[in-house]
Design brief:
Blueprint: H1 2-16, H2 21-27, H3 41-46, E1 50-54, E2 60-65, H4 66-70, E3 82-90, E4 96-101, E5 112-114, E6 116-118, H5 134-148, E7 161-170, E8 178-188, E9 200-206, H6 211-217, H7 224-239, E10 253-255
Parallel strand pairs: 3-8, 7-10
Antiparallel strand pairs: 1-2, 3-6, 4-5, 4-9, 7-8
Length: about 260
């Protein structure tokens, strides 16, 4: 079923291969608000992208800009709940890719995290599709290409294993935070890496038996979502890369 639906989407997906997140915004002639002028221009422009707002059960209820979805309310400390994904990428030797978010990032700059963490966009129709998490998969392909330079022909949406969803929140620096229903995608494949320096300042592969030692030696903290997943689930999933189907839970949302 997923393969047949992807066949119908191939023309549109081909167009998306040429789109970075900023390219999508540029096509709509969006102007960057002056309040974001202190930030890196590319990152500030990306704040106008439209994320998918959801309720606590992951039912889509609308859209809001990336800025609005990550701004911490000054009185309530609330952050709008929206849909996101986290990709965990492993090579053929079972080593996991981690990246360090660049200093240009507006949310959680200079922090270590998993291979890719981002959002399906409301303005891209295919990324709103919910059946088999197809929209999430298409978004993951797009962002891995944009952030890490992985050629889209090396990764197809059906290559991702969708494991579960996680609901978490973090107020970050008190100005920019997170509140997400986070789709967990696993992928084991040797890929070509050409990191985008505006997004990523460092990449490295970690061994399973060295993960705790490596994290302890990191020169910067972990992102909150990576820290939670590492604490609660990641090691078990990593130990079972070749039998992950037993851990799939597509009906429930894990609450951290």
């Amino acid at each position: 079923m997923l393969a047949s639906r992807l066949k119908l989407l191939l023309p549109r997906i081909s167009w998306l291969r040429g789109c970075s997140t900023t390219a999508v915004g540029q096509q709509q002639q969006r102007q960057v608000p002056t309040e974001f002028a202190v930030h890196d221009p590319l990152q500030a422009h990306a704040l106008k992208e439209q994320c998918i707002l959801v309720d606590a059960n992951d039912q889509a209820i609308g859209a809001a800009s990336k800025a609005d979805c990550h701004r911490v309310h000054p009185e309530t400390n609330d952050v709008k709940l929206h849909r996101a994904f986290s990709v965990f990428l492993f090579n053929s030797q079972g080593e996991m890719l981690v990246q360090k978010r660049s200093s240009h990032k507006i949310t959680f700059p200079n922090t270590y995290t998993n291979a890719c963490c981002s959002h399906p966009l409301y303005e891209i129709e295919q990324e709103r599709q919910e059946s088999n998490a197809l929209g999430i998969r298409v978004a993951a392909q797009r962002r891995l290409n944009y952030e890490l330079g992985i050629p889209t022909e090396e990764l197809q949406p059906q290559d991702f294993r969708y494991l579960t969803r996680i609901h978490y929140a973090d107020t970050g620096d008190g100005v920019w935070g997170e509140h997400e229903i986070d789709y967990i995608l696993f992928l084991q494949k040797d890929v070509t890496l050409r990191p985008n320096s505006n997004e990523v300042s460092e990449v490295r592969y970690l061994r399973r038996d060295k993960i705790d030692e490596a994290v302890a030696k990191f020169s910067a903290p972990l992102t909150p979502w990576f820290s939670l997943i590492l604490q609660h689930r990641l090691k078990l999933w990593w130990d079972n890369l070749h039998q992950l189907e037993q851990f799939e839970d597509l009906s429930n949302i894990q609450r951290f």
